[in-house]
Amino acid sequence: SAVISQKPSRDICQRGTSLTIQCQVDSQVTMMFWYRQQPGQSLTLIATANQGSEATYESGFVIDKFPISRPNLTFSTLTVSNMSPEDSSIYLCSVDTMGTEAFFGQGTRLTVV
Amino acid sequence: GENVEQHPSTLSVQEGDSAVIKCTYSDSASNYFPWYKQELGKRPQLIIDIRSNVGEKKDQRIAVTLNKTAKHFSLHITETQPEDSAVYFCAAANQAGTALIFGKGTTLSVSS
């Protein structure tokens, strides 16, 4: 199983600012995924982060708003840019082990005021 | 792309009863179907999964069934206990290395 460390675990941010969330995995993985979970809602895929290439974004999510880095096979960051209260959510990173269980970080609970 | 529908959105049962949650998927290429349990304030945790080459899988009080022809799969919890109360998500993925697409979740409440 993969152990994923995500930080910060929570933050309260002012609107208009940006927050970068870090995700560290204890083993090398090809794919890392970023999800958003709005209050009381399901997990929505933001993007897939591949090492050495641009992230692939899902419909409704754009790179300018959610830039992603993937500098190596164990680390990724997601930035939430120019935040508004609507960005208040839990952000989760995830990895899979090529077709088996997907493991999640503990999540970052973001509140924008 | 894949779309996963999940029903019901809420489910209330008495302790000891069975609970069934159903999901349908749209992409016939999907071949991996996990179920996650999420307790309040915690990350989703895998409770059981099934692959498209299997019709049913059981783990103690939890079972999952898959009907590939109808493109639906179900979670069955028997002898429910109050600690089973949580939000349950089904998901689907269509090949190794792709992200999971989640259903909207079912809030299960087990009263004693």
How do you describe this structure in short?
The complex is a heterodimer of chains A (113) and B (112). Chain A is built from no helices and 11 strands. The model of chain A has no long low-confidence stretch (mean pLDDT 92).
Task: Report on the architecture of this protein.
The complex is a heterodimer of chains A (about 110) and B (about 110). Chain A has about 110 residues and is mostly beta strands. Chain A is about 0% helix and about 50% strand. Chain A is built from no helices and 11 strands. In chain A, strands 2, 4, 5, 6, 9, 10 and 11 form a 7-stranded mixed sheet that branches. In chain A, strands 1-3-8-7 form a 4-stranded antiparallel sheet, with no helix packed on it. By secondary structure, chain B is mainly β. Helix content of chain B is about 0%, strand content about 55%. Chain B contains no helices and 11 strands. Chain B has strands at about 5, 10-15, 20-25, 30-40, 45-50, 55-60, 60-65, 70-75, 85-90, 100, 105-110. In chain B, strands 2, 4, 5, 9, 10 and 11 form a 6-stranded mixed sheet that branches. In chain B, strands 1-3-8-7-6 form a 5-stranded antiparallel sheet, with no helix packed on it. Chain B is globular and about 40 Å long. Chains A and B meet through strand 5 and strand 9 of A and strand 10 of B.
Main attributes of the structure:
heterodimer; A: mainly beta; 7-stranded mixed β-sheet; 4-stranded antiparallel β-sheet; globular; B: mainly beta; 11 strands
